[in-house]
Every structure is written in structure tokens, then in C-alpha cells.
């Protein structure tokens, strides 16, 4: 084999290898698979299930011991971003109800092409457009928000009891997240959006995939606002300042767990 022929052959091999490597980083639109989202819950790493409800066994950042009685929340618009920056948005929603063990495993009907995705995200609650629509399943679950507060739906209902950190007296809390509203009545106003996007990060999908989404419940009381249940406990829905604090604290609540295929 002469030197020129050897050089040409070596270049061809390198070109084929490079093309093969590149092809592994794009979506294979001919192969679509099912994705299932598994919602798990913890308190700073300690697993929480509904068997832990109605017991004073959690202590928040402010020192109050709490008992969880109900926890359910809404996620929507699951979005996959591919390596070209294109987004695939699944126009769907899921009510996660830890109290009754419903919605903990959610499989959207739309299948996803295999390949590398630079980010998978979802919306906590509804964006304003989705929140203006009518959903029979959420109506049946009594997840509605009163018209005097803008209507639509809750983003979360998180209820329980707490023991005061100062005198150990028992009180109720209703940590309900909605679209922040001022001027309750026939013409409420909205100071800022309080739904938010949760970015889970990159995922490589090669076959039917289970994606764990973790909620650290303790974070709702932590960052950046240390929540004082002695002050902010009930009647929080018409309190737009409290709703904005919930929005801020929610940014660190969710994270990506185990991905299995």
C-alpha cells in the first residue's frame, strides 16, 4: 500500500467514526418510546409517604414541629429540549395526590423519540393560559380557586398542623399555592406570575424510561424565606406577598432522581 492510499484510507476511517459519534447525539425520530414520571417525596432526605401523615414528626427550619394531613399539587407542560435547542412540549397535566396515593406515576400519552435531551422540564401549577381553561378532572377533585381570587386552579394544597416553637400550642396551617392576586372581588389584579418552571437537566433516552421527580417538602419552609408558621399559617390564598414567598421557596423544592430504562 503506497503512502497516499494509506493516508486516504485513514482519513476515511476517521470520518466514519466521527459521523457515528455525532449520530449518537441526535434524536432518532424513527423510534419513539414511553416516558413515565415517578413522584417521590422526602423531608431533607428522609422518605415521606402517606403512612407518615397525621403524626408530629417533621421539624421545619423555624423550629415548628409539623404534622402533614394533605399534600397534592399540579404539574403541567412537560417539555423535552433536544440537542438542536428544539422543544417538544407535552400539553398535559397531572395532579399528584400523596394523601390518597394518586398520580404518583404518570405516563403521558405522547411518546418521545430516543436520543439525548439537554433538558427535561415541567411547570409547577399552570401557566396563565392553561389556568384559564376548564378541566373536568380538577373540578371533580375540588381543586378550583374562587372567582374573587381570579378563578382557575390551585397549584398546591399542603395542609397540616404545627406546634408553636414558642409555647408548643397546636395550630392549623394551609399552605396553598395559587396565582398571586390582589384586590379580591369582581376585578382582582395579579402582581406577578407565581407558577414556575422546574428544570431537571439532561437525560439520554434509549428505551421506555422511568424518570423520578423528587420533592423535598422541607424546602417549602426554607429558602430563601424561612417560614414562620406562627405568623403565616392560614388564609394565605388572598395574601399575595405570601404567594410570592411560596413561589420563591419553590425554586429549590424539586430535583431529578433516578432515571431507569
From TrEMBL:
Pfam families: MbnP (PF20243). Residues 1-23 form the signal peptide. The keyword Signal applies. Residues 36-231 form the Copper-binding protein MbnP-like domain. This is Copper-binding protein MbnP-like domain-containing protein. It comes from the Bacteria. It comes from Winogradskyella immobilis. Coiled coil: none annotated. Keywords: Signal. InterPro entries: MbnP-like_dom.
Amino acid at each position: 500500500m503506497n503512502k497516499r492510499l494509506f493516508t486516504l484510507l485513514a482519513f476515511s476511517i476517521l470520518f466514519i467514526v466521527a459521523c457515528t459519534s455525532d449520530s449518537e447525539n441526535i434524536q432518532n425520530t424513527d423510534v419513539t418510546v414511553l416516558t413515565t414520571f415517578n413522584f417521590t417525596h422526602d423531608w431533607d432526605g428522609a422518605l415521606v409517604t402517606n403512612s407518615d401523615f397525621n403524626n408530629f414528626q417533621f421539624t421545619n427550619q423555624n423550629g415548628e414541629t409539623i404534622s402533614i394531613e394533605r399534600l397534592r399539587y399540579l404539574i403541567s407542560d412537560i417539555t423535552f429540549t433536544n440537542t438542536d435547542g428544539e422543544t417538544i412540549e407535552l400539553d398535559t397535566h397531572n395532579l399528584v395526590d400523596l394523601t390518597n396515593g394518586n398520580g404518583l406515576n404518570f405516563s403521558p400519552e405522547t411518546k418521545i423519540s430516543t436520543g439525548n435531551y439537554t433538558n427535561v422540564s415541567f411547570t409547577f401549577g399552570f401557566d396563565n393560559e392553561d389556568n384559564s381553561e376548564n378541566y373536568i378532572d380538577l373540578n371533580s377533585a375540588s381543586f378550583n380557586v374562587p372567582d374573587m381570587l381570579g378563578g382557575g386552579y390551585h397549584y398546591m394544597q399542603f395542609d397540616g398542623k404545627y406546634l408553636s416553637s414558642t409555647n408548643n400550642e397546636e395550630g392549623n396551617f394551609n399552605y396553598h399555592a395559587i396565582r398571586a392576586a390582589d384586590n379580591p372581588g369582581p376585578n382582582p389584579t395579579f402582581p406577578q406570575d407565581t407558577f414556575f418552571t422546574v428544570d431537571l437537566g439532561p437525560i439520554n433516552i434509549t428505551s421506555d424510561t422511568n424518570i423520578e421527580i423528587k420533592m423535598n417538602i422541607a424546602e417549602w419552609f426554607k429558602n430563601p424565606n424561612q417560614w414562620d408558621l406562627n405568623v403565616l399559617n392560614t388564609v394565605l390564598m388572598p395574601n399575595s406577598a405570601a404567594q410570592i414567598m411560596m413561589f420563591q421557596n419553590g425554586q429549590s423544592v424539586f430535583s431529578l432522581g433516578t432515571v431507569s430504562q
